[in-house]
Automatic annotation (TrEMBL):
UniProtKB keywords: FAD, Flavoprotein, Oxidoreductase
Domain Glucose-methanol-choline oxidoreductase N-terminal: 81-104, 253-267
Pfam hit, one: GMC_oxred_N
The keyword Zinc-finger appears for this protein: no
Family, per entry: Belongs to the GMC oxidoreductase family.
InterPro entries, A to Z: FAD/NAD-bd_sf, GMC_OxRdtase, GMC_OxRdtase_N, GMC_OxRtase_C
Protein name (record): GMC family oxidoreductase N-terminal domain-containing protein
Lineage: Bacteria, Pseudomonadati, Pseudomonadota, Gammaproteobacteria, Pseudomonadales
Length: 542
């Protein structure tokens, strides 16, 4: 049986950071266990390839929620990376820290050390800012690229519409003024995806004290009394047991970290017993607290050429492919989420409450179950889309079987908070207003049904229930908080009531951040690494 100082479960956005930081000390033996396999795949490296990995079971857990009553009993599709790099290998690469107020709220909730002024340096530690000319500023290993030169010219209409509405423009959603409309910066390095694995794991893999095991599905955490002492994992049909001298760290993501805790006997006792698992710790909060962003898109035919005209014809695809191969530039080198914003739907909103997307492309004719980013509609078209930034509804992730290979039951409980419905109406009204600006009226040839323009508040909500979808930002299922009865981890991310066990990933968010969740997850891991190393030092001195 092998022994390590640290065992990290999951090589995703957070796990890769930890593997790097904890193995930087040559005296620590670190094991990183990943259920998926290699990320050396063309469709992972090619930025627009996330349209392909979206449904690819070789790199994707492909979860589905239970039917959700509030969205017409639809099941929501939840892709999650099952590969080195985790979801950072299959995501849309948009890099948004979130709003400073998000983290001040975390601190306000009783999480000392997690306010904006506390966490800002942990974002900076990771980031290597690359300007539009390709010049990289000194910084961390995670490339955050300004790709404004690659953005479609259609964007000028969007910015003109925003100006008519009196919205500010920002050149950096991660800068001192994140509010307003602008262009998303993305995680690419010279036109190739820069995942957490590329930035943090790969540079550390040469270290003799870091061992990475792929296709290694962790089945449970092993306890001696209330101390986590190792894990059991299955690899190529064989079950292995490995021991952790210092800590086991779960970085399996917002679906799998709570699932693993429950499989290991840490969760709601009644649920565990129902599945024949003897509780180590009755902790109802494990799996609770689930939050996610949901968005809806409105589709328009355009009066001038859009990305559809470039990428629909075979000749256009070939030209874009050739351009990419020769220069790593063009539409294949970026996300289709090109422009967007963080805006207030009402002048009296205390902080921006809507995130916007303006995509110069449509797929209204796409068959169900396909995400044909490279195969858009045969006419000029574009998308306006919004998502409420800070939904209040909370759901749960619970095991549905004691078998580690069975997917858990996911119940997001969307739109269960009244405020979330009000935010949907505000979002629909906002896009209505934007579509009625002079600039947009010039660009819109015709709206593609359902027509937002004539909708009442009730119809906006009804349409949202019918068509909204996840933006793939689940968080909060092992939430951090000051009260051991309501939260799973403390502000040092240690699991309450147990020793030698932390959770470090998107599941610890006490509340969902306003924007995309990859950047704050990486921040969480940077801060966690500092805390783990500090605790190690203290123990060594004691
Ligand atoms: C399609 C898609 C698009 C997205 N777009 C964006 C975007 O543009 N910008 C943004 O900021 N965010 C985006 N996100 C969200 C963002 O990527 C995630 O919030 C972030 O990656 C979460 O990081 P994590 O470390 O918590 O989990 P993950 O990165 O998902 O890592 C978890 C890892 O643990 C492994 N694992 C799980 N269970 C086990 C087990 N039992 N044993 C061993 N290994 C296990 C998984 O295989 C995975 O590699 C998107 C997500 C998806 C899926």
């Amino acid at each position: 049986m092998a022994d390590f100082d640290y065992i990290i479960v999951g090589s995703g956005s957070a796990g890769c950071v930890l593997a790097n930081r904890l193995s930087a000390d040559a005296g620590s033996q670190v094991l990183l266990l990943e259920a998926g396999g290699s990320d050396r795949r063309f469709w992972i490296k090619l930025p627009i390839g996330y349209g392909r990995t979206y449904f690819d079971e070789r790199v994707n857990w492909k979860y589905e929620t239970e039917p959700e009553p509030a969205i017409k009993n639809r099941r929501s599709y939840w892709p999650r990376g099952k590969v080195i790099g985790g979801s950072s290998s299959i995501n849309a690469m948009v890099y948004c820290r979130g709003l400073p107020s998000d983290f001040d709220d975390w601190r306000q909730l009783g999480n000392a050390g997690w306010g904006w002024t506390d966490v800002k340096a942990y974002f900076e530690r990771s980031e290597c800012r690359v300007d539009a000319s390709g010049k990289a500023a000194p910084g961390g290993p995670l490339h955050v690229s300004d790709v404004s030169n690659e953005m479609h010219p259609l964007r000028r209409h969007y910015f003109a519409a925003a100006e008519e509405m009196g919205l500010p423009y920002t050149d950096d959603f991660n800068g001192p003024n994140p509010e307003g409309v602008g262009i998303y910066h993305i995680n690419t390095r010279r036109g190739v995806r820069c995942s957490s694995a590329d930035a943090f794991l790969r540079p550390a893999l040469g270290r003799a004290n870091l061992q990475l095991e792929t296709h290694a599905l962790v089945r449970r955490v092993l306890f001696q009394g209330r101390r986590a002492v190792g894990v059991e994992y299955e690899q190529h049909g064989r079950v292995h047991v490995v021991r952790a001298r210092r800590e086991v760290i779960l970085s399996a993501g917002a679906i799998n970290s709570p699932k693993l805790l429950q499989l290991s006997g840490v969760g709601p006792a009644a649920l565990l017993r129902q599945h024949g698992i003897e509780p180590v710790l009755d902790q109802p909060a494990v799996g609770g607290g689930l939050q996610d962003h949901i968005a809806v898109s409105y589709f328009y035919k355009a009066t001038e050429p859009t990305l559809n005209d470039q990428l629909h014809p075979i000749s256009g695809k070939l030209a874009a492919g050739l351009r990419y191969v020769l220069s790593r530039k063009g539409p294949l080198s970026v996300s289709v989420n090109q422009c967007g914003g963080f805006v207030r739907s009402r002048a009296d909103a205390p902080t921006p409450d809507l995130q916007l997307y303006f995509n110069p492309i449509t797929y209204s004719t796409a068959p169900a179950g396909k995400r044909p980013l490279m195969n858009p509609d045969p006419f000029s078209g574009f998308i306006l889309s919004f998502q409420p930034c800070r939904p209040l509804s909370r759901g749960r992730v619970d095991i549905s079987s004691a078998d580690p290979k069975t997917a858990p039951s996911i119940r997001p409980n969307y739109l269960s908070a009244e405020q979330d419905i009000a935010d949907v109406i505000a979002g629909g009204r906002f896009i209505q207003q934007m579509a009625r600006t002079e600039a947009m009226r010039r660009l819109i040839k015709e709206a593609i049904p359902p027509y937002l323009d004539g909708m009442t508040d009730e119809q906006i909500v009804e349409d949202f229930r019918e068509r909204c979808g996840s933006v793939f930002h689940p968080v909060g299922t092992c939430a951090m908080g000051p009260d051991a009865r309501q939260a799973v981890v403390d502000s040092r991310l240690r699991v309450y009531g147990l020793e030698g066990l932390r959770v470090v990933d998107a599941s610890i968010f006490p509340t969902i951040t306003s924007g995309n969740t990859n950047a704050p997850t990486i921040m969480v891991a940077q801060k966690a690494a500092d805390m783990i190393l500090a605790d190690q030092k203290q123990q060594d001195v004691a």
